[in-house]
Amino acid sequence: MIKQILKYCLIISVFFLPSLANEKINQCLKNNNCAFIVWGGMTSNTAMSFVVLKQTWITFSQQDKDELKTILQAKIIEAKNNPDKFNNLPPNAPIYKKVNDNISSIRSYSVILSGTKNNSGVLMLDNEIIKNW
User: Fold this and answer.
1) What angle do CA 103, 131, 77 make, to 5 degrees?
2) Which positions make up the signal peptide (predicted)?
3) Which of 93, 101, 102, 115 could join 46 via S-S bond, C-beta 3.0 to 4.6 A?
4) What is the mean pLDDT of the segment spanning 98-124?
């Protein structure tokens, strides 16, 4: 289902958090085994998601997951306060303002499992497992 949804969603931003306190999440990001994304920017259901390889997710402790939840909530606040930072469209694009408005109203976050990476090393979205936990 996630793959079908992605056909209709615009992935707005993939970003790296260099100063995270959680070492496991830092290492995951450094190894490109996970990523934070804002997606669905052209819809009213824009969301902040953490995409992670399944084999990496199963190594996360409950403390790692709790810290991830806090990080996702903080990234939502950051996106609401500075949507331009998370909008990869050119500022002169006709839908730029609409996408910024949608980013400014993010209310949802989730964890999406990835079974594999494509040939370019990009995580493939497989299954949304946690939403606003």
Assistant:
1) 35
2) 1-21
3) 102
4) 90
Residue 39 structural domain: 2-131
Report residue 50 CA to chain centroid gap.
4
DSSP, residue by residue, the chain: -HHHHHHH--EEEEE--TT-S-HHHHHHHHTTSEEEEEE-TTSTT-EEEEEEEHHHHTT--HHHHHHHHHHHHHHHHHHHH-GGGG--S-TTSTTHHHHHHHHHT--EEEEEEES-B-TTSPBPP-EEEEE--
* pLDDT on residue 125: 78
Residue 8 has pLDDT above 60, yes or no: no
**Model pTM?**
0.76
Q: How many domains does the chain have?
A: 1
Mean pLDDT of 85-114: 93
Query: Which tokens belong to 83?
Result: 């949507």
CA gap 106, 15 in Å, rounded: 16
CA angle 58–59–65, rounded 5-degree value? 80
